[in-house]
Amino acid sequence: MIGVLGGVFDPPHNGHVELARAAKERFRLERLVVLVASAPGHKAVATPAEVRLELAQAAFPGDEVVLDDHAFTVDAVAGGRFGDAIFLVGADEFADFLGWKDPEGVLGEVRLGVATRPGYPLERLEAIRGRLSEPDRVELFEMPPHDVASHELRRRLGAGDVPEDLVPARVAELIRDRGLYREAGDPGYT
Q1: 138-154 mean pLDDT
Q2: Residue closest to 190 by CA, chosen among 3, 13, 5
């Protein structure tokens, strides 16, 4: 089975890496494709797409990491692009799933694997799943908690702190060596 992990990855952090690891184990993925949104339709970005692609390649060595020009998930997975795939998201992303562009269209193309964590209100996720026409195409799986939010990470990076406990070592090295995020500011997304 193919797993697809899409995102902005600005920057990729240990929460992203753990989600991928847990999904590989849970779904016995043969292949993981990481889609780095070049120009996402739902949020601003602090760094250019090519830089985020390089950071994601460093965070997910051994996986297929590609730049994706589609602004929305439904367009990225359209036409059976990934076959019988499972699109991976965190519980926080799934909490907003009904507000995505054509959520039913997404489920028509791929199943969703939603990573939960201890303490996250499962009732909220079940309520969202219950409002979908094909709730059985959404599978919840648990992953260990990682207390990291991209906006907070960028704030710390902007202050010159490279929190090596929150990002993969190679990502921290690239950020430090290139002075990334020092003047980026935070466009206010997670």
Answers
A1: 86
A2: 13
User: What pLDDT sits at residue 183?
Assistant: 66
DSSP annotation of 137 reads: G
Strand order in the sheet with 31-37: 64-68, 31-37, 2-7, 85-90, 111-116, 138-142
Secondary structure in 3-state letters for 110-132: CEEEEEECCCCCHHHHHHHHHCC
Question: Are the C-beta atoms of residues 154 and 181 closer than 8 Å to each other?
Answer: yes
Is the model's pLDDT at 189 over the cut of 60? Answer: no
Alpha-carbon gap, residue 112 to 140, rounded angstroms: 8
Token code pair at residue 40 = 């996402």
What is the Cβ-side half-sphere exposure of residue 147, based on CA atoms within 13 angstroms? 2
Judged by DSSP in three states, 178 sits in: helix
Q: How confident is the model at residue 187 (pLDDT cuts 50, 70, 90)?
A: very low
Please check the confidence at residue 59 and state whether its pLDDT lies above 90. Answer: yes
* Residue that has been written with the tokens 């090596």 in this structure: 164
